[in-house]
Amino acid sequence: MRFSGLRAALRHPKTAAIAAGAGVLALMGAAFAMGGVWAQHRQPGNSVVARWTSELEGQRTALTGARRQLDAQIAALATRVGRMQAQMMRLDALGRQLTELARLDRGEFDFETPPAIGGPEVPAAGSGPAVPALQDLLDSVGAAIDDRQRQLLALQSLILTRELARQIVPGGRPVEAGYLSSTYGQRPDPFHGQNAFHSGVDFAGAPGTKVLAVADGIVSQTGRDGGYGQIVEITHGNGYVTRYAHNASVLVATGQTIRRGEPVALMGSSGRATGTHLHFEVLRDGRPVNPLTFVRR
After folding, report:
1. What is the pTM (predicted TM-score) of this model?
2. Residues with Cβ < 8 Å from 29, sequence gap 6 or more?
3. Phi, psi (5° rounding) for residue 193?
4. Which end of the chain is more exposed for a tag (fewer CB within 10 A), N or C?
């Protein structure tokens, strides 16, 4: 009875062929159905992976750009900090120079000690990087340093101008030792006794006594000059010129820079002189003025 159907099919070949074809079609349909289901499951997975890959590439590119931008900002800030430090070094050097020139007390003004600062502790507004805030702070500090530098340069100019004026204006005794032997103005001429104008003052002393410059300047004349004998002439600026006459010998050369108090000659009696002395003159704008106005006796 089990094989009755088979025997029946064999007895009817056409029926058997139809049945076999139907079976094959059924199997093919099942296979296509399963393939479609598998494709439906595989296609969304590939799309997700592709989308993630694209997003990761975009994030990687953005991260690289942000890193480069941050590096550039850090480099710019480092350059600015270096420039500010260099400015502070110059300001410190300038401050020390001004302190020495103005004879300021270190307790009053000391450029070598950072200024004391303070204030309450304020929590940070955020925990992330604060490059813009740091940039604003650096800009503010830089502006303050620039302003301070301008003020100090103005102060330096003022102090140096006053110091220069003090150094180039004649002042002090023109001899290392000796005494005032003749004053400025009308006096009897020592050779013929008639009244004559004496355009300077005389200091008597021992032969070889050092003759000293009374102000900073440049030697504009040396050598023998008629009745002056061996002369040294120094130009100081602001119209001031000083003359040192009747020297035994000259210690400086024309064009040489001279500082106040430096020896320029040795006292003697060259030229029109009755004995060893220094004839000292001060000229302002080419005209003789009374040296006693400048000489501390």
Report:
1. 0.49
2. none
3. 80, -5
4. N
Q: Enumerate domains of the chain plus CATH numbers.
A: 1-113+132-168 (no CATH), 179-293 (2.70.70.10)
- Tens digits of residue pLDDT in 75-109: 787 777 777 777 767 776 766 676 676 665 555 44
**Those residues with Cβ within 8 angstroms of residue 291's Cβ, 6 or more apart along the chain or in another chain:** 170, 184, 200, 201, 280, 281, 282
- Cα separation, 89 vs 273, in Å, equals 57
E strand spans, 117-251: 179-182, 185-188, 195-198, 201-204, 210-212, 217-224, 230-237, 240-250
Token pair listed for 121:
């502790």
Secondary structure element (H or E) that encloses residue 91, with its range: helix 13-102
- Please give the Cα distance from 195 to 118 (Å, whole number): 77
**Residue 208 amino acid letter:** G
